[in-house]
């Protein structure tokens, strides 16, 4: 992971690169993953460039609640009435490739366990 807080997601927030944005409010934005791993694959991110779940503090409690509730609503809007998987890849071992915290919403097919 890069140490900078400036990522491709910052550019999406600022509309400097295109993305298929499905939701936005003052704190968060949600857009379709460019390499979908399921029929529905949407990323929910805070506009604030927090790098990772590791960097979350108790001061981020309201923001994290907001992200979870946003993910819930985005999943409903995407028609995921039969369930979905919510994933936060964290750090190198977690498979995180973009250093801006993000929630993956994956759905539209049966998920398997354990993940790879
Ligand atoms: P991570 O591996 O960090 O958990 O997830 C990063 C995700 O961001 C990946 O699923 C990847 O496909 C997605 N991604 C990377 N760059 C872009 C981009 O420019 N646009 C969009 N929409 N998704 C991206």
Can you tell me about this structure?
With 116 residues, the chain is of the alpha+beta class. The chain has a single domain, classed as 2-Layer Sandwich (HIT family, subunit A). It has 2 helices and 5 strands. The protein has helices at 8-13, 61-77, and strands at residues 21-24, 28-32, 40-46, 85-87, 103-107. Strand 1 and strand 2 form a beta hairpin. It is globular, with a radius of gyration of 14 Å. It binds guanosine-5'-monophosphate.
Short description:
The chain is an alpha+beta fold and 116 residues long. It has helices at 8-13, 61-77, and strands at 21-24, 28-32, 40-46, 85-87, 103-107.
**CATH fold call:** HIT family, subunit A
Based on CA atoms alone, the radius of gyration comes out at 14 Å
Q: Say how many strands there are.
A: 5
Broad CATH class:
Alpha Beta
Strand content: 15-25%
Structural class: alpha+beta
The low-confidence parts are: none
Strand order of the largest sheet: 1-2-3-5-4
> Level of helix content?
10-25%
Mean pLDDT: 96
Annotation field: number of helices: 2
Distance between the termini: 19 Å
